[in-house]
Amino acid sequence: MTEDQPPFRDPGLTRAARVEDLLARLTLDEKTALLHQFAPAVERLGVAAFRTGQEALHGVAWMGPATVFPQAVGFGATWNEELVRRIGEAVSQEIRSMRARDDRVGLNVWAPTVNPLRNPLWGRNEEGYAEDPRLTSVLATAYTRGLRGDHPDYWRTAPVLKHWLAHNNETDRATTSSSIRPRVLHEYDLRAFRGAVEAGAVAGVMPAYNLVNGRPNHLSPLLREHVRGWTDQQLLVCSDAGAPSNLVDAEAYFDTHEEATAAALRAGVDSFTDHGTDPSVITGRIRGALERGLIGEADIDTAVRRQLTVRFALGEFDPERDPYRETSAFDTPGHRALAQEAAEQAVVLLKNDGLLPIAPGRRIALVGPLADECKLDWYSGTLIRRVTPLDGLRARFGADRVVFADGADRITLRAMTGGWVRVPSRGPMEGIARKATGELTGETAGETRGAEGALDPALLGGRTDLPPLTCDTDAATEASELVLTDWGHGLITLRAPDRRYLSVAEDGYVRACAEQPGGWVVQETFRLEEHEGGHLLVHAGTGGYVSVAADGLKVAGHGTLFEIVVLERGEEAVARAAADADVVVVMAGNDPHINGRETEDRRTLALPPHQDRLWRAAHAANPRTALVLTSGYPYAVADARAGLPALLWTAHGGQAAGTALARVLAGDVSPAGRLPQTWYVDDADPAGLLDYDIIGSRQTYLYFDGTPLYAFGHGLSYSSFRYDALEIGRRGPELRARVTVTNTGSRAADEVVQLYVRQAAPRVPRPHRQLVAHARVPLGPGESRTVELAFGRDELGHYDVARGAWTVPEGTYVFEAAASSADIRRSVRLTVPGDTPCARDLRRNGLAAADYDEQTGTEIVDRTKVSGDAVTPLDSDGERKAGELLFRDCDFGDGASGVVLDAAGEGVVVLTTADGGTRAAIEVRACGGPYDYRTTPRAEFALSGVHDLRVSLRGPLRLARIEVTG
Q1: Average model confidence (pLDDT) for the chain?
Q2: Which of 97, 317, 517, 870 is the most buried (most CB within 10 A)?
Q3: Percentage of residues of the chain with pLDDT beyond 90
């Protein structure tokens, strides 16, 4: 090649050779600059600027109008990986199409979220697929394959899995540590990530904000030990936003940012997302780390090499060969149909005592706060078109057959100092408009938050071009009627007569200007505080009080006292509408920006009290009432299950949600969604939000010992199905199940065939049953089909802490063909050869403290800041008092005489056999800090044979290992 055409421009060379050539041509400063999220262009080499991080969880997010598909948890409810693959394909097509006209749109896609949905109170439950790691992995693999494209060399987009690792809490998410023992790590958390990486459909991963076992995820040795070992590809690890700075600022894990940045780079972070679009802070820290000798140029080269590899795969340096360069598919009829199909397949019929489907000609009362809504979440795109349930039912059944009541209270506000609150007119174009097709009008689409696109929508401000609300003392002036919706936990929204939400912009004035609540800090929610016979109106986003000023209502340090005049209670309107209907459909659920979202966990599984009153009022007026729950998470609705004839659940369904729901309610589509996570009876059922030990605390369908409200995998149909002739056989390394499924009803319908396995007599705690395969199968009336399900023998295994490896124990396994994890239709027992049980060889291997079988009152922490684990008593009221570990089947051979510990801190470790016969108390005095590990003096501990060993930890110590001596 000539200088005009350097080797990195030669598509005839291997990709690795081209990357190395370009890398060698970059200066140190140029390479350093590439490590920031917003990598600048290198003009002298013709290398363009590059941005990591295009959000695309269920459609192209943040960059303006795009097709909006159901939430990710709705993908999970479809149990249909081929559908999810097609959605990923459509999303990546729209990314390419949008990038052609807006180069802010990036090709490095931060999606999907593959954290298993361990606890339904997690604020970001809507972003995940399922509580089961296998189902999560299968759907993640499908979505990333669609995003990647099927060309062998070039990628349509480069997906990044998030959030590595064990991340299911928003509460103190940057400082909490998830205590993950080896079994949970290998059997649960790693399994969710592994499939997509091994499939070659993933360009990288994003570490999460939290710590795991006391070490920030951005320093995780597991990135190297596991993720990079699952593939031969160069994976790009992108930090989460602001997380590199958190290593010092929030977590105080290092004293200086140079140390923190160097440690993250060495651990495998390749792209630093920090300080927005300004790379100078990060590049300055990297240069400082170089000057201090904390990193070398080779460390920078490693990260840049990974980034360049991804960019070459995206066709950046071969535009003429890039098969996806001319992609123009955007908002196509196919994409619209796909959005509707996904929304239909995500609907889960929880209960039906014959009320559904709704027959033609019936009078329907559609009521509730979500009846005329098409809600978006933080990771949604901007709607091009929108069909609410009200739109969908009126289109399907006839506008004259559907009456509507949103169930909100109608109020006016009077300042107790005098005057009524009034919303200024917006003029002849006021209101939120959409065409009969559901397409938003130009006026509405242009005013929607984020319609113009934003690299960081958290920086978008509210509107200041409209006049604020006023408080008019003129007796001839009518007060404006406001719509008050109570979302629970004291949070309300207020809407003006033109349906706009009251919102507060950065200038502090209250305006009716928001189409929906939204934003990183929601500016459309308020609280009412009773005070001296009236109410103060508190703006939740700022904490300030609404006060009457000369030029309008604004938020200030002191508020005006208001009288709330109730014109009509929502329950009254709902009861009135319900009484005259043949069927009532109550639409309840959540607003994805309120009481459960990124940065905010839920506090309860219960419906908001106001919504609970609404369905009760509807049912009291008309027993033929169905409750449709639309949300990103489960609810505890035991009374509704007991009292109502029909219940359904769906995630927020995107642009076609209303059409999809109407078709399901009408019976045009038989519902076949299945729950991707357990629905519990009440708040006492799930373990604590910060308890990540699903085995010890008996979490998810795998281990939960109680009776759920609705089980994992549950979902009914308008048809019925029979299962026959389950057979299990072997074919090479795979096991295969065959079962015949027959549609015994009169309607065409899909059945989701689920195959579970359980070990008949396990020696260690194993799941009650676990999903190993599934298939969504369409069946016509009376049709039978033999369904074949293949799965690997390793699916039968677990991580054996005695061996330190994955093992499939020999013994009898029960295979169950099921309609849900609680609805077993056929089962077969099979004896499987495998690994024989073995004891822990203490004299040869010693004991790693984190490899316990059971524990009480302890947590796992970091052995060093680079690698390794230790165990410490849980922090209780600022003190680490006592905890206990149990190690089963410890083999002391023909005789041990002593024991030593690798420990830090101060305290006492007491070792006893389970029968209490042998005991040793060892004092730990390593006072140099939490990482000052020392070997304790040998203590007498004479023992032979196999015993269970109890280890009690007392005081603020850290135990890493136990070694026995002969």
Answers
A1: 95
A2: 870
A3: 91
Q: How far is 933 from 800, CA to CA, in rounded Å?
A: 27
Residue 55 has pLDDT above 60, yes or no: yes
User: Is the omega angle on the peptide bond into residue 112 within 30 degrees of 0, that is, cis?
Assistant: yes
Task: Decide the pairing of beta strands 854-856 and 526-531.
Answer: unpaired
Checking if the pLDDT of 115 tops 70, the result is: yes
Q: How far apart are CA 966 and CA 943, in angstroms?
A: 10
Backbone CA torsion sign across 332, 333, 334, 336: positive
**Cα–Cα distance for residue pair 932/955, rounded to 1 Å:** 16
Beta-sheet strand order (sheet of 215-216): 177-178, 211-212, 215-216
How many alpha carbons fall within 13 Å on the CB side of residue 359? 7
DSSP letter at 600 equals B
Rounded average pLDDT over 909-930: 88
Percent of the chain with pLDDT over 70: 96
Which distant-in-sequence residues (6+ apart) come within 8 Å of 283 by Cβ?
32, 33, 35, 36
Peptide bond into 163 cis (omega under 30): yes
- The angle at the Cα of 247, spanning 245 to 253, to the nearest 5 degrees, equals 150
Tell me the C-alpha distance between 652 and 69, whole Å.
Answer: 9
CB proximity list for 350: less than 8 A, separation 6 or greater: 641, 647, 648, 649, 710, 714, 715, 716
Strands (E), 155-233: 158-164, 177-178, 204-207, 211-212, 215-216
Q: Which residues pair with 178 in a beta bridge?
A: 212
Q: pLDDT, tens digit, for every residue of 192-227?
A: 999 999 999 999 999 999 999 999 999 999 999 999
5: CB partners within 8 A, 6+ apart: none
Separation of first and last alpha carbons in the chain: 68
Q: Is 538 helix (H, G, I), strand (E, B) or coil?
A: strand
pLDDT class of 876 with cuts at 50, 70, 90: confident
Separation between Cα atoms, residue 269 and residue 289, nearest integer Å: 15
The whole-angstrom separation of Cα 196 and Cα 202 is 6
CA 908 from centroid of its chain's CA atoms: 41
**DSSP string covering 464-485, please?**
-SSPPPEEE--TTSPPPPEEEE
* Cα 193 to Cα 130: distance, rounded to the nearest angstrom: 13
Question: How far is Cα 373 from Cα 884, in angstroms, rounded to an integer?
Answer: 52
Categorise residue 519: left if φ over 0, alpha if ψ from -120 to 50, beta otherwise.
left
If pLDDT is split at 50, 70 and 90, which confidence band does 406 have? very high
Annotation says 189 is catalytic: no
DSSP H helices in 521-626: 570-579, 609-621
CB atoms within 10 A of CB 40: 15
DSSP letter for each residue of 73-108? HHHHHHT-HHHHHHHHHHHHHHHHHHHHH-TTS-SE
- Alpha carbon of 724 to those of 493, 738, 755, 780, 827: distances in Å? 53, 9, 13, 17, 10
Q: Would you state the pLDDT for residue 449? A: 60
pTM exceeding 0.90: yes
Residue 353: Cβ-neighbour burial (10 angstroms; 0-12, 13-18, 19+): exposed
Which residue is catalytic, options 240, 270, 406, 591? 240
Matching residue, tokens 């014109």: 567
pLDDT in tens, 257-274: 999 999 999 999 999 999
CB 870 within 8 A of CB 910: no
DSSP 458: G
Confidence of residue 902 (pLDDT cuts 50, 70, 90): very high
Residue whose pair of structure tokens reads 């194993």 in the numeric block: 766
